[in-house]
Amino acid sequence: MAESNWDETIVLDLDHLSGFTGGDPDFECQVLDIFVENAPGYLDDLCRIEQENWKMTAHKLKGAARSIGAWRLARAAERAEKMPSPPPEDPRRTEITNLLSQRLQDLTQFIKSRQHALKG
After folding, report:
1. What's the rounded Cα separation, in Å, for the pair 35 and 40?
2. Average predicted confidence (pLDDT) for the chain
3. Which of 44, 52, 64, 70 has the greatest number of beta carbons closer than 10 A?
4. What residues contact residue 85 under an 8 Å CB cut-off, 6+ apart?
């Protein structure tokens, strides 16, 4: 399966998010709150799970990111999903989880700024 064509330079696609939330700023804040609450758990799971659940957990993170238009995070999660399930001691596992962690941190900071602007 080919990789997506999501623009990896976009931390959060506000046009996509607006379409998803119908342009309602209160609903947008709720959606972003849910994402910020749940996404770190997916990443934590990815860092500690056994190999057989790797792809499923990476898929969950990809789906959560994709739903709000977080293309940069979604692309990294997609690559994690497509890679062979690495054992815990595999350096590729550390590399991709570190990348995902950094991208999630960048996204979370962007979301907090966005919510602050929406709330005035």
Report:
1. 9
2. 93
3. 70
4. 51, 52, 54, 55
